Amino acid sequence: MLVAGSEKSVRMMYTHKEEMLVKLRKWLMISLAAMLATGALAAGGCSSKSTSTDTNTSGSTKSTLSGTIKISGSDTMVNMAQAWAEKFNTENPGVVLTVAGGGSGVGIAAFLNKTVDFANASRKLKDAEKSQATTAGLNAVTTVVAKDAVTIIVNSANTMKDITKEQLGKIYRGEITNWKDVGGKDATIVLLGRDSSSGTYSFIQDEIIGSGKTYAKSMRNLQSNQAIVDEVSKNADAIGYVGLGYDNSSIKVLTCAGVTASVDTVLNGTYPLSRDLNMISNGQPTGVMKAYIDWILGTEGQKIVAEQGFVPLKK
């Protein structure tokens, strides 16, 4: 049996022990948080600040990922890249993403000048660009993030349905200038293409025009895929090329050598003008950049690829 004074002393002793335990728990939590933050920064590279997560009172995981990622390049990829950035940012509000287009050449030039973290490119790096990267002290690493089909488009009134790579080569080199020479009506072909900074321009150069040969001087160089779609939809005699994601009801897409551009024909390699869509970084991505590229390659990122009309890496 305890007297009042002794009971009070015992309670004070327990209260003191509880305070010590609380202080010890706080010290352990602070130390653990510091260890996690140090590890995250060490793995994060220049753009990463933190890769930790918190659990809120409802039990769901809330991201505290933070950092800045700058991206520039392919006009073909720009709508998809913006959709990726917006969705990723809603899930990771601490990450600041900036996305700019301008063409693959523009993005690669920015990468070589070390002003962006990722260059979006609808073509492979050229040998000269690889040499420039090495000279600049960069380790250019290409990650394939989606696939695409370069589609050949004409006006909806055009009676053509199919075209071969050989016919395209002659048209874009200026060797064929009238639709009747490839099975169409008697009318001069209005030739549309991208500007020279475009990855699609380079792709057509390599796959259609041929090494050592040049585009026809009559070709109108437009600044974007959308500009080509808009012009073809208004001009009955026009022909152009755009990424698969720009196909819509205002234009007609020709089959190429009898093959329709689709998810299946791109993935099985039967569509003749298939290509990879790439993100180029300095070394393997780390920290917040790795988190972003992993997310793009994951379920949500690849779902957006399909929503934007391009081809996910896996069906």
Which keywords apply here?
13 strands; two-stranded antiparallel sheet; 315 residues; 11-stranded mixed β-sheet; alpha/beta; disordered N terminus; 10 helices
Briefly say what this structure is:
This protein is of the alpha/beta class and 315 residues long. 41% of the residues lie in helices and 24% in strands. It has helices spanning 4-44, 75-91, 104-112, 127-135, 165-172, 199-209, 225-234, 263-267, 287-297, 299-307, and strands spanning 48-50, 53-55, 61-63, 66-73, 95-102, 118-121, 140-155, 162-163, 190-194, 220-222, 238-243, 251-256, 274-282.
Task: Characterise this structure.
The termini are far apart. The chain has helices at 4-44, 75-91, 104-112, 127-135, 165-172, 199-209, 225-234, 263-267, 287-297, 299-307, and strands spanning 48-50, 53-55, 61-63, 66-73, 95-102, 118-121, 140-155, 162-163, 190-194, 220-222, 238-243, 251-256, 274-282. The chain is an alpha/beta fold. The strands form 2 sheets. Strands 1, 4, 5, 6, 7, 8, 9, 10, 11, 12 and 13 form an 11-stranded mixed β-sheet that branches. It has a two-stranded antiparallel sheet with strand order 2-3. It contains 10 helices and 13 strands.
